[in-house]
Amino acid sequence: MDTSPLQFDIAPSSGVPIYRQIVDQVVALVAGGRLTPGDFLPSVRQVAQTADVNPMTVSKAYGLLESDGVVERIRGQGMCVSATATSGPLAERREQAQQLLAPAIHRARLLGLTDKQIRALFEASLKDSAK
Amino acid sequence: MDTSPLQFDIAPSSGVPIYRQIVDQVVALVAGGRLTPGDFLPSVRQVAQTADVNPMTVSKAYGLLESDGVVERIRGQGMCVSATATSGPLAERREQAQQLLAPAIHRARLLGLTDKQIRALFEASLKDSAK
DNA sequence: TCCGGTGTATTACTATATTAATACACATGG
DNA sequence: CCATGTGTATTAATATAGTAATACACCGGA
């Protein structure tokens, strides 16, 4: 069993339920091809510890992913990305990213930032996330 | 009483509680200087109708804003931006926008998009939000 | 077999979010 | 005064989110 170094970004104060954040990230990783069939996710206990949440919360996320056919839960081994889980078409992935970027940009405008300022922030974040 | 054409963007499926979305947007509008002391927010009933949520939910958001000193609730008139509510320093506003942009960009990467693709999406969204 | 890991079941609990409905107090304008 | 708007109080309900604790079943390796 290959222990994945994968870590989920959980922002507890973001207002989005924890389990939902996990689900969303796994879905994105699979859609983007960074998780492929046969890959294992970090265990319920690992994620719970790393993110400092209850294991059952993580299990809930994984349960939803299983219902969606993204992963298969293998007792004793862990969560395995399904054979049927394929990366998404580019257009779809674009659309999903757009739906995250657009509100963020809109909020930046509400905050009174100019296009130029928003652009600078964007480029900085893009660079930061390159690691 | 000046009826504000202001409308809140409420994304029910985003996972962020509705009242929280309202609060965040008002805070951003004030920080960005687009709402200034003496301005009135749309009424509880207006927002509830527009967003198709219960008035008490909106009232909750407004109540939190009042507790934070952002608005004053004037019975019979509506919600008025407080005299003490001032736009935030640029650095703070930048920081806030960054905290929204960074996760969105990170997710875009998880989705397997290249920098170039992310940039194109960003520019498109920036243009769209210019209206 | 033992050990260390995997996920699960289970019941109960707490906290939060949202809603309902309706009458009330307040404000403004005619 | 009436009409139309404002926010509020109130009690109760439902749904959701997260947690606790612990033992169980399963798995793989030594």
UniProtKB/TrEMBL annotation, chains A, B:
PANTHER family in UniProt: HTH-TYPE TRANSCRIPTIONAL REPRESSOR YTRA (PTHR38445:SF9)
InterPro entries: Tscrpt_reg_HTH_GntR, WH-like_DNA-bd_sf, WH_DNA-bd_sf
Record Pfam families: GntR
Sequence ranges assigned to domain HTH gntR-type in this UniProt record: 16-84
Organism in which the protein naturally occurs: Aeoliella straminimaris
Alphabetical list of SUPFAM superfamilies matching this protein: Winged helix' DNA-binding domain
GO molecular function: DNA binding; DNA-binding transcription factor activity
Keywords: DNA-binding, Transcription, Transcription regulation
Domain of life: Bacteria
Protein name: GntR family transcriptional regulator
